[in-house]
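FW: tagging you since you asked about this chain on Friday. Here's the raw sequence from the shared folder, copied in full. Didn't touch anything.
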Amino acid sequence: MLKFIPVFVLSLLMSYPTFAQKKKDKKNPWLSVAPATAVKDWDGVYMGVVPCPDCEGIQTMIKLNKDNSYTIQTKYLGKGTEVLEDKGKVFWNKDGFNLLLISGDDSSYVKLALNQLTLLDAEAKVVTGQYASFYVLKKDKFVITEKYWKLVELNGKPLPNVKREKEPFIVLKDKGKNFGGHGGCNTLLGKYELGERNKITFSDLVTTMMACADSDTELAIRDALESTDHYVIDGDFLRLEDARNRVNAKFIRIYLK
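HL: got it, structure written out here
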């Protein structure tokens, strides 16, 4: 069930079967593909923190895909680490701005504008009042910095299935060109430099010195970073490759952290 506007009762205004029948009606405004009037570069990731009546806010991510599917992830801040996820189909109003998101028997309305997505109420109207700005999600910039990248592969192989203190990850900070992360047992710190054509180099790597059951993986992570020549973005994945285009490490983007 969609949970990204908790202050409203998101019971269906129309069930999916009823909606499917209405699609045959020429007067029905909803289209299954983006019209020519659609906002330019509408696909992408939109993020923000929506008001919550009994928590610190709902961290929200909506990803609109070119195939007219979508994914919503929500995390209730101050109420644990669980991330809820829902997927469904995007339907378009002929104006190219107003969208209907349908997942199973649930639906919600949103409105597109350049680089932002506004969550609408159950009557497809813009939320007003002092909290109105919190219902506007901003489009995520297509950069690799200030994002949480979870390590999933090293040298073309999945990570060993062992118990770790934390999941291995890196975050490249804009400020000072520093990066931080974790190898599974020890904290990892250092510097990075970006160049043309997706060039990236890592330097001044340091780690804490705790003894680890999986020390080989931590050493491999360090070697992978130090031998990286450039990066490749493939959807939600980040690949670090050497000068011969061999994949040193593969990460997946984690949106809500």
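FW: The two ends are 21 Å apart (CA to CA).
HL: agreed, and Helices lie at 16-22, 215-226.
FW: great, closing this out.
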